[in-house]
Amino acid sequence: QQQVKQSPQSLIVQKGGISIINCAYENTAFDYFPWYQQFPGKGPALLIAIRPDVSEKKEGRFTISFNKSAKQFSLHIMDSQPGDSATYFCAASGASGTYKYIFGTGTRLKVLA
Amino acid sequence: DADVTQTPRNRITKTGKRIMLECSQTKGHDRMYWYRQDPGLGLRLIYYSFDVKDINKGEISDGYSVSRQAQAKFSLSLESAIPNQTALYFCATSDTTGVGQPQHFGDGTRLSIL
Lengths: 113, 114
Description:
- The complex is a heterodimer.
- Chain A is mainly beta.
- Chain A has no helices and 11 strands.
- In chain A, the strands form 2 sheets. In chain A, strands 2, 4, 5, 9, 10 and 11 form a 6-stranded mixed beta sheet that branches. A 5-stranded antiparallel beta sheet of chain A has the order 1-3-8-7-6, with no helix packed on it.
- Helices cover 0% and strands 56% of the residues of chain B.
- The mean pLDDT of chain B is 93.
- Chain A binds chain B through residues 6, 9, 31-32, 34, 41-46, 49, 51, 89, 93-94, 99-101, 103-106, and chain B through 4, 31, 33, 40-45, 48, 58, 90, 92, 94, 99-108.
């Protein structure tokens, strides 16, 4: 129940295309869903996050879509750029009254120039 | 200067050795975390601390111990290192106000155990 399942494991997209990464969770007590971006040699950095009271959140080219009934959320990167090439992690937090994160297994995105 | 600093950045050592990884932060956050990253497994929580007097085990604490020396310092120890502890280790911090506060990560320690 504590798992967050992320797919795909890797993704190759042409420059200007849309990158889509999906995550699914089991525990309905989760109430905060962040996405992190990690470049080689660096720690993960918060990209965008959503609470379950909204179905979509957009920040620039990055959008989170959230489907509470299906217990799924996804990251959409519009007009993908080579600089977006990184590993992306979804996470879920808020269950059991703590602020621990449960991370997905990560998606390695490569955007071709 | 980085807000969350991890030392060393790289370490190669032998099986059975005691190793300490250190983390310091200038963000003034009370909460600190240690994670381990392995390819295909994502980030897994080893230990976390909500203040200096509070230490909690995460999902993979066996073989590890921690010490919270001050609000700004949180160290991770491997008492007797074994090869399957070879991984990338990250320290993170978060604020205490409200639910869902973002975690801020250091740039990691790459640990290799031969």
